[in-house]
């Protein structure tokens, strides 16, 4: 390579190309593969810049005059395309990449499309060269989404849309895809693989000034796309590489258009074909999603057709999950659940984000807990958020800050295996909070974890923000919630039952207001005194919640996806739990399975499913439950509530023999000794259980005991316990167990049952 005067060769090429010059420049490019790209560009910037723009000029001119030099041109363009692909993934500044890889004027683009129009030979090699150039432009805007705002990128895609996609020839090629084992020419690949690939990357940016919107493009393509998927989903093993590419990038356009469109049922109708439902299309997509040879080809961070196809299908399913009837189908479709689990070992970050979004909605709590993606998604979110924050368009790899924060909000509502314990991560969230108010909702969700509370309290700037408040109602509601969580453990549970003026409070998410209204109207006719919903604008929601809970005897929680995601609902039901109200959970969303904090809170209770039963029948079950004496949900068991004077009497007359203590005795003993959180963690324990716990503690190190009790506390209550509480608990148990007690015999089987029941291993 050192013997080649590349500057002179490229200067001559631009003026008078020859076979010899074409070969020498091609050899030079081929020789750079084993050299440092940054050094090559730094040393030969000007000649390489000239070569790149000469190539665009050639593609825009009539190349039929090449004659005997055609192979040399093809080889040079192939080697230059490979060089450009390396450039895209290099550390070169974006200005260098776009100046090398994008045409200088729209006239050049017009020339390229004029040459495409003139081609009648479907095997024309010019198309394969344009193919490589458009592929690299697609890859460039995938890696650098801010380029979608460039006029030249917009113009290329406008020409693709008008000259290729809306062309009758494109429809002919789509129709040919509806037959088994289609054959492909260069022109067909260019039409239904290359152009859709570039167009879909552009459409993900949701351009404002594009001649067509997502709904119009979808209406044009959806019917043909549905036919193609139905036909080929049963013969995946026989797909050719070309068919895989075409289906991948057609799916990309469909997914890009859906990301541009709001949720409305008219969109689903576009996919309707005779004798097939939307669920049939989903079933066909699941077949493709489950195909294991595709899983084996998924790359970690770079693109290939298999990775992009899985990613695009997951994106399509993520749009469809917004329809409640389809979400019900997802939750009932065991093959989809298996597909989500089989993809769980992927190391592809973008795919992981889309996979987690579905896992969060569909998988059970236990499945989520074991999910590799779920356990590592926090780091991916932060990486994407930080990259998007630096981007002028506030996007990273076509994923916007808003989409990322929506996903992170969902994550913040789960019991994360690895919660945020890095001050840099929290400080980053605080830094972007003024621009994105949703961050306050995220911080509210995170502040339910006492470990994160401690980190937040260390940030004086954040504490000052909380104290000053906000005129933004959404932010102020979150601030009230965060401050409530900071003070939660200081709450005194001292309301007397005689002060209750309502029988029932109904806890619900605003999205489920219709079912709330039905329940309210039925209950007040019985008649029960039902605390009316009161969520006026500009009111302090936390203060309102406190009054509602303190004035009520019992709480009905209307469980749904939106309820689980609502911080206000969580604060309300946790306070009701703390105030020892009887809790009656009801399921109001088909196939909904409570997980995370909600699952921990109702553990041991049997929810009434208003979707499995007709409403009148479900109401009968609910009314029967209301007639049962008030109980308090404590951990895994439902404990009958006693009048306050009787409880006090029990605490005064509690036996000195711990082996004879009842569950109420244990709970009251813990409360009397200022361990209310441990009373919740150990709810359901009898005195005999406490003796076994003492024996267990004596056999393990203090560190092990602390870790196990902390883990159990988070699992059961969503809150952590402090080291001080654990040490005090252990001392009190040892002190109490040393008191002479009546011997209690325990066989091995019973011991195993005990430790299994209460989560110790």
TrEMBL record:
GO biological process entries: signal transduction
PANTHER family, alphabetized = ARMADILLO-TYPE FOLD-RELATED, TIR DOMAIN-CONTAINING PROTEIN
Spell out the InterPro entries in the cross-references.
SAM/pointed_sf (IPR013761), TIR_dom (IPR000157), Toll_tir_struct_dom_sf (IPR035897)
Domain called TIR: residue spans: 500-619
Superkingdom assignment: Eukaryota
- Write the protein's name: TIR domain-containing protein
Which Pfam family name is an example for this entry?
TIR_2
């Amino acid at each position: 390579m050192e013997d080649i005067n590349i500057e002179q060769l490229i200067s001559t090429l631009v003026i008078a190309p020859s076979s010899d010059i074409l070969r020498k420049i091609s050899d030079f490019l081929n020789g750079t593969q084993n050299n440092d790209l940054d050094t090559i560009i730094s040393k030969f910037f000007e000649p390489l810049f000239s070569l790149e723009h000469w190539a665009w000029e050639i593609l825009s001119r009539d190349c039929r005059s090449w004659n005997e030099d055609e192979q040399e041109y093809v080889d040079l363009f192939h080697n230059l395309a490979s060089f450009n692909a390396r450039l895209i993934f290099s550390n070169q500044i974006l200005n260098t990449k776009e100046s090398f890889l994008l045409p200088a004027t729209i006239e050049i683009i017009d020339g390229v499309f004029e040459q495409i129009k003139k081609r009648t030979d479907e095997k024309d090699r010019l198309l394969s060269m344009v193919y490589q150039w458009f592929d690299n432009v697609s890859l460039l805007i995938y890696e650098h989404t801010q380029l979608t705002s460039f006029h030249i990128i917009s113009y290329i895609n406008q020409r693709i849309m008008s000259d290729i996609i809306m062309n009758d020839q494109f429809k002919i090629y789509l129709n040919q895809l509806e037959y088994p084992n289609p054959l492909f020419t260069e022109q067909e690949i260019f039409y239904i693989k290359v152009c859709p690939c570039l167009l879909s990357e552009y459409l993900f940016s949701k351009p404002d000034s594009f001649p067509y919107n997502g709904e119009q493009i979808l209406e044009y393509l959806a019917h043909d796309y549905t036919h193609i998927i139905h036909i080929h989903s049963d013969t995946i093993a026989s797909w050719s590489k070309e068919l895989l590419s075409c289906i991948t990038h057609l799916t990309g356009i469909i997914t890009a258009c859906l990301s541009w469109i709001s949720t409305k049922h008219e969109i689903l109708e576009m996919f309707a074909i005779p004798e097939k439902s939307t669920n049939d299309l989903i079933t066909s997509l699941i077949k493709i999603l489950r195909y294991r040879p595709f899983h084996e080809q998924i790359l970690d961070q770079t693109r290939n057709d298999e990775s992009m196809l899985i990613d695009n299908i997951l994106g399509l399913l993520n749009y469809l999950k917004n329809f409640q009837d389809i979400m019900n189908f997802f939750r009932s479709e065991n093959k989809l659940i298996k597909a989500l689990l089989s993809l769980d070992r992927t190391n592809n970050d973008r795919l992981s984000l889309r996979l987690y979004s579905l896992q969060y909605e569909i998988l059970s709590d236990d499945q989520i807990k074991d999910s590799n993606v779920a356990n590592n998604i926090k780091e991916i979110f932060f990486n994407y958020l930080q990259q998007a924050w630096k981007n002028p368009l506030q996007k990273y790899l076509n994923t916007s800050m808003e989409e990322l924060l929506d996903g992170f909000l969902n994550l913040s509502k789960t019991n994360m295996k690895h919660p945020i314990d890095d001050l840099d991560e929290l400080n980053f969230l605080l830094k972007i909070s003024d621009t994105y108010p949703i961050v306050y909702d995220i911080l509210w969700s995170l502040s339910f974890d006492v470990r994160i509370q401690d980190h937040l309290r260390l940030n004086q700037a954040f504490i000052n923000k909380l104290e000053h408040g906000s005129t933004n109602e959404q932010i102020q509601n979150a601030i009230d919630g965060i401050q409530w969580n900071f003070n939660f453990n200081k709450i005194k549970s001292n309301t007397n039952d005689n002060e209750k003026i309502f029988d029932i409070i109904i806890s619900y998410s605003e999205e489920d207001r219709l079912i709330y209204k039905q329940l309210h109207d039925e209950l007040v006719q019985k008649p029960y005194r039902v605390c009316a919903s009161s969520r006026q604008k500009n009111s302090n929601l936390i203060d309102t919640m406190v009054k509602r809970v303190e004035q009520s005897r019992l709480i009905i929680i209307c469980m749904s996806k939106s309820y689980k995601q609502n911080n206000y609902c969580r604060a309300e039901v946790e306070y009701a739990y703390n105030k020892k109200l009887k809790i009656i959970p009801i399921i109001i969303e088909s196939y909904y399975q409570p997980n995370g904090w909600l699952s921990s809170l109702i553990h041991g209770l049997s929810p009434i499913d208003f979707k499995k039963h007709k409403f009148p029948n479900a109401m009968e079950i609910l009314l029967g439950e209301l007639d049962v004496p008030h109980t308090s949900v404590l951990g895994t068991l439902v404990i009958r509530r006693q009048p306050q004077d009787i409880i006090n009497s029990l605490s005064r007359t509690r036996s000195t023999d711990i082996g004879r203590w009842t569950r109420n005795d244990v709970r009251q003993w813990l409360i009397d000794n200022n361990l209310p959180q441990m009373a919740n963690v150990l709810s359901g324990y009898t005195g005999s259980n406490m003796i076994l716990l003492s024996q267990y503690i004596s056999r393990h190190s203090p560190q092990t005991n602390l870790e196990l009790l902390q883990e159990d506390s988070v699992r059961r209550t969503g809150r952590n316990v402090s080291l001080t509480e654990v040490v005090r608990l252990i001392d009190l148990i040892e002190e109490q167990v040393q008191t002479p007690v009546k011997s209690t015999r325990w066989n091995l089987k019973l011991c195993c049952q005990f430790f299994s029941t209460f989560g110790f291993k």
